[in-house]
Every structure is written in C-alpha cells, then in structure tokens.
Design a protein that fits this description.
mainly beta; 7-stranded mixed beta sheet; 8 helices; about 10% helix; disordered N terminus
Length: about 625
Amino acid sequence: MRPKLIFLLAAAVLSCFAAGARRAPRRIAPRAAELNFAFLTDVHVTPDGASDSLLRAAVAEINDSAVDFVLVAGDLCNMGSDAELRCVHRILRRLRKPCCVVPGNHETTWSESACATFGRLFGNDGRVAFRAGDYLFVGFTAGPYMKMADGSVRREDLQWMEAQMRAARPDERIATFCHYPLTNDVTNRTAVTQLLRRHGVRFDLCGHYHTLRLCNFDSIPGLMGRALVQRSKRHGPSMGYNLVRVWGDSVAMYEKLLGEAPRLAFAVRQGDSPDLAALPCDPPPAPLSYESTGAALAVEDEASVYTGVAVAGDTIFYGTSLGVLRAYDVKNRREVWRRQFGNAVYSTPLAADGVVVAGDAAGAVWGLEAATGRRLWRIAAKTPVIGDGTIAGRWLYMGLGSGSMAKIDLRTGRVAWEFRFGDGQPQGRPAVAGGRVVFGAWDTHLYCLDEATGQKLWSWTNGSPQRLYSPGHIVPRIVGGKVFIVAPDRFMTALDLSTGREIWRVKQRKVRETTGVSADGERVYAKTMDGELLAVATAPDRYAEVWVADAGWGYDHNPCPVEEREGVAYMANRTGCVAAVRADGELLWVGKFASSAANDFFVDDRNRLWVTFIEGKVFCLGDPVVR
C-alpha cells in the first residue's frame, strides 16, 4: 500500500475516534449503492489474555478485507479499567479502516476513571455520528453509569440524538448503534424508540447478549451481533465477529469466524415490514402508579441524576450527569445555587452544620457553605471521587478517590488521617460505630480502621480474586458488635466488629449489595435478586431469617440501600418501583415512581423520606402511608 494512502486511512480512523466532539458528522465512506462494514461487540479484552490475541487476529483479518469501516458497540473490556481500555485502544489503532466506538456497560458501570479515560482515548463521550454512503450513523450509550442498573439513555444524549437526526439530509437514511438492545433492558426504551421512529431510523445495531439475533425494537429492525468469544453448550466456544451488508432496502448480518468464510445469519428489509412484525416485541413498560403512596414529585431535572440527596431545611442538594451540584428550595420551587464541576457527579452530597460536602469525579472533595454554595475548602484527589461519605459528629469519613479513606474536619477540611490501601474505589458509604470505621472497596476487601488513628485493625475478603465480586458498592451495617454485609458474590455475611472473624456466611437467597437495618437494631434487611425484602435477626450467632416479603417485581439487581422510617422499610428496584414493608413483614404497598433505577433514600430531620431516580426525578414522601 502506498505511504500516502496509509496516512489517509490512519487520519480517517483518528477523525472517527474524535467525531463525537465535532458539531457536524464526518463522512468516512464514499457514497455508494452498497455498504459493507465490520461490527464488533462484547470483545471483553483482558491485557495479555486470550481475548487480547483474538482481537488482534480479528483486526488483521479486517485490514485484509474489503469492508468500508468498523463499528464497535461496547463491552471492550471487563472492569472498565484504564489498563484494559488502553490495551483495546492500542489494538484498534492498528485498523487501517475508519473505526467508531461507543462504550458498553462494562466500561460505564465499574470505570475507575468515572468514564473519563474512554472519552480521552476514543475522542467521544459515548456518542458519535458519521456519514457513510447514503447513511447517517448515530451511536449512543445507555450506561448504566457507576452502579448496577438497567440501561437508560441520558436526557442530554436523547437531545443530542434528536439534533443529529434533524440535521440528516433529505436523501439520507439513518441507522443507529448502541451496546444495549432497545428492549426493556433500557428503562426509557419507549422514549428512545419513539425518537428513532419519528426520524425513520432504518435499523439498529446492538450487542450485550453475546449471540446473533434479529430483533423487533418497536417496529425497528434490531441486529444483535455475536461476541468475540461465544460459548455454546452444543458446539463449545467459537471465535469471531460480525459483518454487515447494506444494500437497497435490505440489511444483512453475517457471522465471520476467524479464519473461515462469512456465513449469513439473517437478512431483513429495512424499517417496518410484515416479516419484522412477526417477531416478538417487548411489552410496553408498566404505567406510573405512585399517587396512592403519598409521594410527591419535588424536582424533575433536565439532566440525569446518579446521587441521593442531602437536606437542610427546605433545601435539597443533589448532583447531575452534567456535573452540576444543585441546591434547590422545594418549598418555593426555585434554585438556590448551583456549582459546576468538570464531570458527572456520582457521590451523594452530605449536609450538616451549614456545610455541604460533595465529591467531584474530576478529582476532589469539596466543602461548601450550604446557604450560598461558597467554597469553604477543597481537597484534591489523584483520581475521581465517586464514593459516598458519612458524617459523624464534626468529622467526615470519605474516600479521596481510588485506594483511599480519610477522616476530615467538616468545618475546615483538615485531613486528620488518610488510610491508603492500594487501588479500588470505596464507593459505598462507610459505617462508623464503636470506635471503628468499616468500608468496602473494589479491590475485593472490606476494611476496619481505628476511628481515632486510621490504623487498619483488620481486613476481610471473600476469597475470590474476581474484582466484580468485591464489596465495593455496599453499606456495611454495624449492630451489636457485628458487621453485616452483602456483596455481588450473593452471600450474606456477619463478621465480628473487633476481630473481623466470620460469625456466619450464607448463600441461602440471592442477595446482592442492598442492605438496611431496623431502628431498634433487631433486624438487618437485605433485598434479594428475586424482588424480595429479607429480614434477618441480628442477635444470634447464626443466620436466622425473621421474614421474607415479596414485592412481586421479580428479577432485580439495583444497589439502592434499604431505609426504615417509623417501623416501615422501603426498598426500590431497577425499573423505578418502590415497596413499603411493615416491621412484621407485611407488604403495605408497591408503586411505580419512575422509568429508571432508584439511587438512594434519605430520611431528613423532619421525618420526610426522599428518593431519587436516574432519569432526574426526586420524590418526597411526607408522613408514612399505610393501607
């Protein structure tokens, strides 16, 4: 190949990596009656692992093929670590074809950089638009961001997609791609597909389920691609990727096993058709039904919200996906102040003694005057701050980014001590009791520190090296000299607060991350992945269930903690539902508040219960409602 042509192809690849940052979509393939491109998804690269060499082999094949360009739709790696992302980026830069990439849930859920490294490497923030042939391709992201949840397309991303599609030329067709299938796996799927249908989108490309499948996304053809490594009980593992051919009014997907000829998987007419209508389509989501619960919608923000609230009087404080920390007067329905940070806010604010504390994913912890938002102090962190903190007396206990836990004077910002433990974000809020500070991190460990000195007293691990099983996003519950935790490994564990010794460890029910504790300390709560609330006695030195209440919503993995108020325990799920369960295990009510996962509950000093949802909604439940 001539040096000039190599240079032009390399420039095309770089321009596509950066396309999301530009106003106008770039053209990466000439106008033609037919398009042929490679479609990669779910490559799950681990540096120096088998998937690393397999992706290199796929790139080499693609370079020697006649495809016009390459699309990559997420799950590039496993933990979203910077090392993994850099590895994938180095491999994809070897492509001599234009390449456009959007992230998947493995990049956005556990990202150590709060999703910043992906944008820095691939030149977009999860959304990209480009022109190829007679098509406008629009790529977008459905998260979830920095916690377990279903997919949900952010409000600002929907607005961006609308703007891109409105700018389509009269003779252009539109196609979209996203890691998530546009089914009920995306909680606001109806809003997304309505937008796509309104602009006549011809087809959508997705991955996530590691299998080839033709889908009906609300009358839009959905082409689901295979993973780089696909396992079958019948045929064992296979290694390959996908090829897509677009011509006339049709689109086809081919399976391309490494070293073999492509095989047609399916073909379909673009847009709605009788053949597409014959395929099953997910039912519409359930309607909202919270009116009888006594809840009131206090705020509906223009952005997504990934935090809970802090409260001071009639002012609530929360963070948004646009990097805004907002103070809002719910009584007079007006904004009091806002502070703009450099990245989305994932850390739930805290408020006490006239001070609001906020973690900044750009790398800092802030102390602000609650009334005005004026800066009181700022502590720089070496990495993003995404974890929650706890205030006990005059002290704030909070991580200063990855591998850190600190004790901070709330009024001055003076750091009394900082415990460094390597790496891994301490994402869930720590528990402070009995002169101990207990917290978990995404390094597989639970830590117990001396409250006065920050000295490590003990650490505990479940024995698995798998970081995805870490107690990283949990709230430890300390009751009666015991520490109760539930982690993604689906065990419930009781430890001795003084020594870290296991008292009991049970995998009797499918619990995951979500816990709570009764006001009298007699019960610790855990939400199961079957939509149940489990109450376990805290006094015995053995696992003893008190009751189980089934909310009836089935499978769930949302880590929103359980909160009890006046003998009623509240839990929430991944689809916007809240359930109230009395202390004796009787289910009082279930209501659908939103179309996205809940973030956190908070009971303020006026006994009001607050709950936030990813789609930007904040609800207040005044007096408990018992039916």
